[in-house]
Amino acid sequence: MLRLLSYNRPEWHWLVLGLAGSAFMGLVMPIFAYSLSSVIAVFFVTDFAYMDEEARTPGQHLTDSPG
Fold it and tell me: Are the CB atoms for 39 and 58 separated by under 8 Å?
């Protein structure tokens, strides 16, 4: 097994780069799903002041604007 891995020694940096890219792309969809579900959950709140405050929060995170 080690001999087989030694044949691929020149390509190890591509393997690490591909692994990191795959891990990043694998995290994109769950993060998007969590963000979208938190935005949709705001519409089921009956307290309008809380709804207004929570509706502004995701937009502030996306645009990086202060308060």
Answer: yes
Q: Hey, which bits of 9-67 come out as E strands?
A: none
**CB-facing half-sphere around the CA of 34: CA atoms within 13 A:** 5
Closest to 41 in 3D by CA, of 58, 25, 28: 58
Cβ atoms of 58 and 38 within 8 Å: the answer is yes
Residue 34 corresponds to which amino acid? Y
What's the pLDDT at 18? 95
State which amino acid sits at residue 65: S
Q: Is residue 14 part of a domain?
A: no
For the chain, how many structural domains are there in total?
1
Is 41 within a domain? yes
State the pTM of this model. Answer: 0.54
